[in-house]
Amino acid sequence: MRVVVCKTVFNGLSYHRVEEPTRAVNEAGIGVEVLIGRGLATTMSTGPDPVVLDVDDQGADVVVMQLPKTVEMLQCLRILQARGVAVVVEVDDLLHGASVGHIGHHMSQNGTAQRVLECAREADLVTVTTPALLKEYARHGRGAVVPNAIPRRVAELPPAYERGSDPAVVGWTGNVLGHPYDLQEMGSGLQQALDATAGNSEFVVVGQKWDLAARLGLRAEPREVPWQRDVDDYLALVGETLDIGLAPLRVDRFNTSKSWLKVLEYAARGVFAVRSPIVEYDRLGLGYRARAARDWAKAITRAVQEPEWRVEQARAAREVVLERHLVEHRVPQWVGAWEQAVAHRAAALGKAAVTVG
After folding, report:
1. Where is the Spore protein YkvP/CgeB glycosyl transferase-like domain (predicted)?
2. Mind listing the pLDDT tens digit for each residue in 214-223?
3. Same domain, yes or no: 198 and 257
4. 124's torsion region: left (phi>0), alpha (psi -120 to 50) or beta?
């Protein structure tokens, strides 16, 4: 089977949902060849409203479109299917569910989210990261959940709990502007913990802190560690910087559809995680579950004051990642999804031929 994957320009999404799965499938040596590209070569009509006339399928049995957001991609999908090429749409966020103020809300306003939905409706199969996304994008019943995973080379890096640091580093990773409501889920819990462990803890942001201190009412600005665009470098940095990782998320429609990735990354790098009671985090079963400010304060404080307990928890979580959540563990799911898409396309063409006949 030959699979061509058109990846998105978003670096992290491509890494976890295209580049690393492709690497794992190709290295598995199971007779499946996967190629990656930024887009599809097309022939367009001329005139004020050009349309796609032809698509180079590169001899693929399956073409995977990651977040297809344009009318032209929908036109490509239809041409490919008419030719007998199965089309899979890959989605990992509820684009039409982002709240006002969220960095992704503009996708609902400019029609981008609708284009993704339209492509998903006509796809032979939709692959997603969570069951909640499956319900949104694969209401036709043609979908598969392939959860996010971590490359073995990342999970086997020296874990944070072997580094040892004094003071203990409590941290959050991300861009605050991309999480306008999430950090506030900790309430006063973070400041309570920093007060209780003064002199023995430090709070840092790996990424962009912006006005985080004001949002959380912190008495001191956190240290900011610059974001690393290369995902391998970023994941290495997480384990080299943090001892305790925070994963607060507001319980809303967008977030309850999200993957368990942040907590999984913390676990893979040997960082003890404190996280919100989001469905996917609960399903993963890793990290300390914190609902109210007192929970955040209790967990962070204990993790700082009882390093042996923290290390024990972090070590156990990392072992779970190594046993169950490596990218190589997902190979059968990826290949199985693509095979389902091929079967559906063959059945659809057969049905069409019978109808015409």
Report:
1. 198-334
2. 999 999 999 9
3. yes
4. alpha
Q: How far apart are CA 282 and CA 249, in angstroms?
A: 13
CATH code, domain with 247: 3.40.50.2000
Distance CA 315, CA 38 (A): 38
Q: Dihedrals φ, ψ of 217, to 5°?
A: 65, 35
Instruction: Render 240-284 in DSSP notation, one character per residue.
Output: HH-SEEEE----STTGGGS-SHHHHHHHHTT-EEEE---HHHHHH
43: three-class secondary structure by DSSP:
strand
| 154-211: pLDDT as tens digits | 999 999 999 988 999 999 999 999 999 999 999 999 999 999 999 999 999 999 999 9
Four-point Cα dihedral 106, 112, 117, 120, nearest 10: -130
Amino acid present at 189: G
Phi and psi based region of residue 101 (left: phi greater than 0; alpha: psi -120 to 50; beta: remaining): left
- Give yes or no: residues 254 and 288 share one domain: yes
User: How open is the CA angle 200-173-215, to the nearest 5 degrees?
Assistant: 80
Task: Please give the Cα distance from 329 to 316 (Å, whole number).
Answer: 19
pTM across the whole model: 0.96
Least Cα distance to 76 among 129, 48, 118 occurs for 118
What is the C-alpha to C-alpha distance for residues 244 and 287, in angstroms, rounded to an integer?
Answer: 10
**Residues 95, 107: contact at Cβ < 8 Å?**
yes
Q: Answer whether 33's CB lies under 8 Å from 62's CB.
A: no
129, 213: one domain: no
User: Is the CB of residue 289 less than 8 Å from the CB of residue 316?
Assistant: no
Nearest to 41 by CA among 1, 72, 85: 72
Chain centroid to CA 193: how far?
Answer: 29
- Decide: helix, strand or coil at residue 174: strand
